[in-house]
Amino acid sequence: MQTDIRRTLLEMFTNAEGEYVSGQRISDLLGCSRTAVWKHIEDLRKEGYELEAVRKKGYRIVTKPNKVSTNELLLGLHTKKIGQNLHYEETVDSTQKIAHRLAQEGAVEGTVIVAEEQTAGRGRLARKWYSPKYTGVWMSIILRPAIPPQHAPQLTLLAAVAIVQAIQEVTNVLPDIKWPNDILVNNKKLVGILTEMQADVEQVHSVIIGIGINVNQKLEHFDSDIQHLATSLSIEEQKEVNRAALMQAIFLKMESLYEDYLENGFGLVKHLWESYSISIGKRIIARTLKATIEGHAKGITNDGVLLLEDDNGTVHHIHSADIEL
Ligand code: BTN
Which residues bind DNA (predicted)? Predict the structure, then answer.
């Protein structure tokens, strides 16, 4: 089925809020025959929409599939760029890998690659990212900012702020950010962000922001060795969370922060990031590849580097580390 017909049909059913829409009205609005309407309805059923048909009343939507399909994500999405060009897959190895390929092939800014499941999801520091089917948000967003490569980490912080704001809008969960890019609730990991880029010495070609959010997993879905370290929105909320609504909120927040960032610089993001951070102002331990440094987290630089003052008063610039609070 063509995407625009599908979109119009779903819009119609969504606006009807569970009430019946007559076959005649649908055929008028789509400008097609009643037989063609019936065919479109069958196509939606094949995609997992449960639609009820009653003689003389018409059709109504009973349930939507538990998917973050292009249909669900585009319906009512009011961004200019982010998410408007969507690549949806049921199963992929890693959305990051696909995003790198599409970026190289010239994908437009704001392109999003989303999957229901990743078989080889990648985390920071060459770790694996567990991404089971239909339970989380596993996506990569392609941006093309005209910035020098050393500023790219600022976009990780921008994404973290957008995600925290979106989670607060869609749920009652109030997450914190742990430097550089973990989003936690009660000290348990909820979200991971992996930012990678394609660049030459002077200029960024593309920044790929990979976002993994544990949304509807139950505790037993996590391996027993990480159950005390990880959580999901549904564990915190004690109910299922609509993944498509969450993603749309992220796209909107990200777009508005990104526009401000391109126009006015890093100031707003830095300020918001520090306000959501649980590392800043605290005593922390930073484990880098070379050393373990304990001290007071003073803040971040304009490049997103963590400033850590040890007990001798030396301020260390931490570019990459695991942080213990
Ligand atoms: C982390 O280690 O905290 C970062 C995890 C990032 C996971 C996301 S899921 C979508 C995207 N595709 C990947 O393979 N990884 C990122």
Answer: 23-42
- Domain 3-63 belongs to what topology? Arc Repressor Mutant, subunit A (1.10.10)
Q: Is 178 in the pocket of ligand 1 (CB under 6 A)?
A: no
Q: Residue 88: is its pLDDT beyond 90?
A: yes
Name the residue type at position 33. S
Q: In terms of CATH architecture, what is 283-324? A: Roll (2.30)
Q: Looking at the predicted structure, is the pLDDT value of residue 3 above 70? A: no
Could you please state the CATH topology (level 3) that the domain comprising 70-276 is classified under.
BirA Bifunctional Protein; domain 2 (3.30.930)
ipTM metric: 0.99
Q: Distance of alpha carbon 1 from its chain centroid, rounded?
A: 27
Give the rounded percent of residues in the chain with a pLDDT score beyond 70: 99
Single pTM value for the model:
0.91
d(CA 139, CA 208): 10
pLDDT digits (tens, 9 = 90+) for 189-235: 999 999 999 999 989 999 999 999 999 999 999 999 999 999 999 99
Measure CA of the first residue to CA of the last residue in the chain; give whole Å: 52
- Order the strands of the 112-118 sheet from edge to edge: 86-92, 112-118, 136-143, 204-214, 188-199, 182-185, 176-178
Q: Is 68:93 a contact under the CB 8 Å cutoff? A: no
Confidence label for 303 from pLDDT (cuts 50, 70 and 90): confident
Q: Are 170 and 246 in contact (CB under 8 A)?
A: yes
Tokens 């292009």 sit on residue? 70
* 211, 159 Cβ separation under 8 angstroms: yes
Does residue 138 line the site of ligand 1, with CB under 6 A?
Answer: yes
- List, as residue ranges, the binding site for biotin: 118, 122-124, 189
